[in-house]
TrEMBL record:
Pfam families in alphabetical order: IspD
Recorded metabolic or biological pathway in which this protein acts: Isoprenoid biosynthesis; isopentenyl diphosphate biosynthesis via DXP pathway; isopentenyl diphosphate from 1-deoxy-D-xylulose 5-phosphate: step 2/6
Keyword field contains Cytoplasm: no
Keyword Nucleotidyltransferase: yes
Reaction catalysis annotation: 2-C-methyl-D-erythritol 4-phosphate + CTP + H(+) = 4-CDP-2-C-methyl-D-erythritol + diphosphate
Lineage, highest ranks first: Bacteria, Bacillati, Actinomycetota, Actinomycetes, Mycobacteriales
Superkingdom per UniProt: Bacteria
Any single GO BP term: isopentenyl diphosphate biosynthetic process, methylerythritol 4-phosphate pathway
Record's protein name: 2-C-methyl-D-erythritol 4-phosphate cytidylyltransferase
CDD domains: CDP-ME_synthetase (cd02516)
């Protein structure tokens, strides 16, 4: 099968609080984006790679990643993925992998790809949730000065999975998932679910964590040092 990998890297990374957009922040001597693309290549899955970056950084990204197709993204993640999809040529299997998960080990790429090749239309890597989860709302009993919230429910975590990327799709499934505007969707599998496509979960890996906050960046820098 011809495999395409779309790497959405067009987010601003406000929650990270760095000067550059998240994918262009340094992680042990190269950018998060370069490390992520090395991870994709290092996974050994002969694939066509399309990287999606903020429009003003297309030139810079092309210099950083010679030989990789770089296209400008959109205002929402799903728009960026669609821009990548348009540049994906005739791939019959497409993996979408967030730049913000640069330490994802090769085994995760292979498990996801193998599951698509085995016949699943959509595949995500997932891990059991370790924390106890509570649903919250605003407090009825307001105590002046604190920002506390009220617990309304403890959620059963047993049937829940924390889902990461790469997310793998047949070309047809990803096109159907993105046929409508994805709006604020945080992942592609969510769009596939909405179309009634069954999404399979394979084991993820803790190293596939997403760099979102300054804390995550500290952990990632320690891991690569
Ligand atoms: O914000 P978050 O970390 O969930 O974003 C996930 C991924 O989607 C990141 O790699 C980010 O660069 C990408 N993204 C994008 N275009 C946007 C917003 C996010 O490519 N407009």
């Amino acid at each position: 099968a011809r495999v395409g990998v779309i790497v959405p890297a067009a987010g601003s990374g406000v929650r990270l609080g760095e000067d550059s957009p998240k994918a262009f922040v340094d992680l042990g001597g190269s950018t998060i984006l370069e490390r992520c693309v090395s991870g994709v290549v290092g996974a050994g899955i002969d694939a066509f790679v399309v990287v999606v970056v903020p429009a003003e950084l297309v030139g810079h990204a092309r210099e950083l990643l010679p030989g990789v197709t770089v296209v400008p993204g959109g205002a929402h993640r799903s728009e960026s993925v669609r821009a990548g999809l348009d540049a994906c040529g005739d791939a019959d299997v497409i993996l979408v992998h967030d730049a913000a998960r640069p330490l994802t080990p090769p085994g995760v790429f292979r498990r996801v790809l193998d599951a698509v090749l085995a016949g699943h239309e959509a595949v995500v890597p997932g891990l059991p949730v370790v924390d106890t989860l509570k649903r919250v709302d605003t407090l009825k009993r307001v105590v002046p000065g604190d920002g506390a919230e009220a617990v309304t429910e403890t959620v059963d975590r047993e049937p829940l999975r924390a889902v990461a990327t790469p997310q793998g799709f047949t070309r047809d499934a990803l096109l159907r998932a993105h046929a409508d505007d994805g709006g604020l969707a945080t992942d592609d599998a969510g769009l596939a679910e909405r179309c009634g496509i069954e999404v399979a979960v394979v084991p993820g890996d803790a190293l596939g964590f997403k760099i979102t906050t300054p804390w995550d960046l500290r952990i990632a820098r320690m891991l690569v040092s």
